Amino acid sequence: MSDTQTRRPAFGRRAAPSGPRATFRQLLPFIFEHRPVLIVVAVLSVIGALASLAQPLLVSQVITIVEAGDPLGWLVWALIALVVVSGIITGYQHYLLQRTGEGVVLSSRKRLVGKLLRLPVAEFDTRRTGDLVSRVGSDTTMLRAVLTQGLVEAVGGAVTFVGALIAMLIIDPVLLGLTVLVIAAAITTVTLLSSRVREASHQAQEKIGDVAASVERAIGAVRTIRASGATEREIRDVEGEAEGAWRMGVKVAKISALIVPVAGIAMQVSFLVVLGVGGFRVASGAITVANLVAFILFLFMMIVPLGQAFGAITSVNQALGALGRIQEILDLPDEDAHDRELAPLAIMVGHANAGLQPHAPAIEFEAVHFAYAATRSDPADPGNESPDEHLPEPDVTQRQPVLRGVSFEVPRGQRIALVGPSGAGKSTVLSLIERFYDPSVGTVRMGGLDVRSIDRTELRAQIGYVEQDAPVLAGSIRDNLKLGSPDATDAECEAVLRAVNLGGVLDRDPAGLDAAVGDDGIMLSGGERQRLAIARALLAAPPILLLDESTSSLDGVNERLMREAIDAVATGRTLVVIAHRLSTVIDSDRIVVLDGGRVIGEGTHSELVESVPLYRELAEHQLLV
């Protein structure tokens, strides 16, 4: 097991804290990215509102003319034209809002994915993959409702509301006063409930993230689960998470159910009050029947945008609940956020790792301490202290120490092997060279330069890194090979595959380089996945190769062929190899023995057998002495 695996949180345990609440101001940048379209929508909304406001006036004129017995003439056609124009505007406005809503979802997903893939590696150690995927999928979808459920339409709605209010004031101030009392009570009710909607929506999205994380965990380990007879237990666990999400969804529905009918109730009460009091005022001669009809039409026009506003409040608060989870990730610092503070003029390492000190070791560790974060008290804490803060040893000890004062050199062009028991810190050494993490104390150098002073992209361009579990990306063989070498030719891809004894994979599938490898490389054997990962690193032809248990999944024949392939490409390159099987590294130029995060011996195989008891014990168990 690698060192990174030993510190993952227990199965099912939430490591990441709940995200902060988002504010409406944080929502505006997502909306204003589509400002031109929204301006068009707002203008259409205003035009539609004016067309709607004109309709009650025309109806009032029609009633007055009919009462007088005069011909209607152009009024009927004008009323029909207003209805048709209003319908066309509404339909086109709906299309623009739906399209813009999809644009908001797209832009938010782009920003979130861009941030996720630039986060420090330590963030992924303490967060669940399924929950992160849920933020990209489910949470971003919630932002669509902001535009499609009334927020932008509120511009036209405001014009309609104000226009109707003025017209009603002119027609009958008494009836308007009674209407305003009913509406004020409705607005007060919605305001009191809106904050509860936001909180419940945030909790519901958290639960959806839990479901996604549980499903991702179960599917990712489906073979282990079935082999262990744990299928039913896992189903119950996932169902439990799904029921939790259902309960939170029901909670949101209950609160929303209190808000949604408020507009309808307000309209009905207002209508009954206006009808009753208005009928009395018509009988008393205070207003005419035509004015009462116009007042009622304006009442309905005022209530409709009020209902839209209530819907907008609900949708915005639900979106803010989801945005809080999105914003939590967007507010995290990128992996290289502090790099310019450490090295304002980051050095760009040249080709073949020439650097500025050609006679310095390719890699050097000087008194390096490192500790993985035990807990996450601050969502913005990437897991390890800032690289420029040299922590004292006591603080390192309190944060799950992995390396304790490690020092060694890797001369250029030599093969150095790291050996030791599981948990000794071997994989962590490679992670520090790659700058997935930075030392808590001490310095890691490449070519005599502190790796923190080298641009990360240039640093990693000098290194070929093969992880212990040799991950394979879903897609084709070509996709995997060209991940780090996008300009490689098919001939180069085939050559490197045959160099690592993967020619049979090409030959057995007519698709050749386009043969699918399946999700996580399931179409390949363990050894083939490992060799494909090595081929990917070799294709980039880096000056430094880091191989973490690169032959652990190979049988004896393929191990020999792999060693021959690595020997062939090792000429003129620096290799740092981790191995449990000492037979694969006994011919290394130098072997570094790690135990408990400390270097306890360095030398050749024969020297270490004589001088380091732990190494001698390992060699004896593997029948090498």
Automatic annotation (TrEMBL):
**Listed GO MF terms:** ABC-type oligopeptide transporter activity; ATP binding; ATP hydrolysis activity
- Enumerate the PROSITE patterns for this protein: ABC_TM1F, ABC_TRANSPORTER_1, ABC_TRANSPORTER_2
Keyword Protein transport present in the record's keywords: the answer is no
Q: Would I find rRNA-binding among this entry's keywords? A: no
Provide the protein's localization: Cell membrane
Identify the residues that the record assigns to the ABC transporter domain, covering every copy: 363-621
Pfam families from the entry? Answer: ABC_membrane, ABC_tran
Transmembrane residue ranges? 37-54, 74-92, 151-170, 176-193, 255-277, 283-304
Domain named ABC transmembrane type-1: which ranges? 39-318
Question: How is it placed in the membrane, per its record?
Answer: Multi-pass membrane protein
Q: What UniProt keywords apply to this chain's record, in alphabetical order?
A: ATP-binding, Cell membrane, Membrane, Nucleotide-binding, Transmembrane, Transmembrane helix, Transport
This protein's GO cellular component annotations are: plasma membrane
Region ranges (Disordered):
376-399
Give the record's family classification: Belongs to the ABC transporter superfamily. Lipid exporter (TC 3.A.1.106) family.
Task: State the name under which the record lists this protein.
Answer: ABC transporter ATP-binding protein
Question: Species name for this entry?
Answer: Agromyces albus
